[in-house]
Amino acid sequence: MSDILFFGCGQIPLNSKSPVDGAGFRTWQIFNGLKSQGHTVYLANYSYDGTIFYQDRSILHEHSLHCNSETSQDELILTIDPDVIVYYYWPIININDVSCVKAIPVCIDFAGPVLIEKHFQDGGLKIETILNKIHKINIGDFFTCSGKRQYYYFSALLLMSGITEIIDDSIMEILPLSADPKMNQRLNRTKTSDTIIKCIHCGYFHPWQNPINGLHRFAEYVKKSKNIELDIYGIPSSMGEDDKRIQEKIGFNSKIHYLGCQNYSRVIDGIRNADFALDVMSKSLERELSMNIRTLQYLCNGIPIIYNDYAEISPLIERYDAGWCINPDKLEEIDSILDDIVNNPNQLDQKGINAQKLVCDNFNWEKTIEPLSKFCFNPKKRERNVLYIKEFINSYPKSLINLLYTT
Question: Which of 41, 225, 247, 273 is spaced 20 to 30 Å from 158 by Cα?
Fold first, then answer.
């Protein structure tokens, strides 16, 4: 058993009256996974800017850290003196004096492809952001990511940071997005030809995801169907369009209910009381590398999904018969699936059972945590080429950075 100082990020599902985001759920997954293996985990949870603690998280458990926005990571490390430090989300790494981790192994869990997301944010991806990432991740001794595709994506970044161990050593392992093995019991409902069949869609409307095309196709279908409705728990992106514009693009009608941003408890209730989910998004590099929290929540609550055919989890959905996978460029396939659901609604029950089995077999956070837990049981520092990172960054003269930034 090890004492672990875990720097997390995001809105965690501790308070059911608050919303939850992807970063918070990943933090919660890792925290609970490590605890299930017998480790003592001290959680310090940050907002996305890497400086402000969530004050209402102090009731977490006996090892929560009672901190304030002035408490530095250096202070926490010196106070706890952990066996291992784990970071979720590299931008929150903020150590002033690296000597405080000279003898403490550090693990970094990579979130989704943040650099690709940055392309859509803050005026686009900047060379300074790339250099900052390469610099920050060099502090790591072990790394985890969410999938096989991400493994190769992040391997390139590790090499750029001088972490050549990725070539012939198990310095990075896959830690899939995972759920609590104590899943909610699926709500089975007998359906007749008059039963209203409820579909659900949840999450942000980020510009790099674009679920609107699939939702619009669905909205057009339900205009002529008497017994299908759609609930949308949607959150406008700060980088995208507002609620009104989103609803206009989807093409709202009396069978489409836009419920906006809701607390975690209400969203889970909405998912559990749905019959199936629509989770189709336009194909992009970011989408191919990512898995949504909402996708996992649908499946672990026994809700079959209409999903993309290009994602890493897509073959599992097909193999377990836990939904339908379609080409997002052929949205007419949604019509055929909805016809099939209307004509045979009771198939949704078996697909829902299959969905929970898929999660139980592949995404149980007490099992998927094992690679990280193994490192924490026997942590070690890696050998370092201390000059590499300085040479790498210094090799970019200011004139070249300006050229890259402006062209």
Answer: 41
Q: What is the CATH number of the domain that holds 339?
A: 3.40.50.2000
Residue at 107 is within a domain: yes
Regarding whether 62 and 32 lie in a shared domain, the answer is: yes
Structural Rg of the chain based on CA atoms: 22
Same domain, 402 and 338: no
Tokens of 270: 């909405």
Give me the average pLDDT of each 10-residue run along the chain (407 residues).
91 76 92 95 80 46 55 88 94 89 95 82 77 89 96 93 86 96 81 83 84 92 89 77 78 86 90 96 91 92 97 97 97 96 93 97 97 97 69 55 44
Cβ-contact 266, 198 below 8 angstroms: no
How far does CA 344 lie from the centroid of its chain?
33
Coil, strand or helix at 6? strand
Specify whether 394 is located in the same domain as 258.
no
Secondary structure class of 236 (helix, strand, coil): strand
Dihedral of the alpha carbons of 128, 134, 140, 145, in degrees to the nearest 10? 100
Could you tell me the pTM of the whole model?
Answer: 0.89
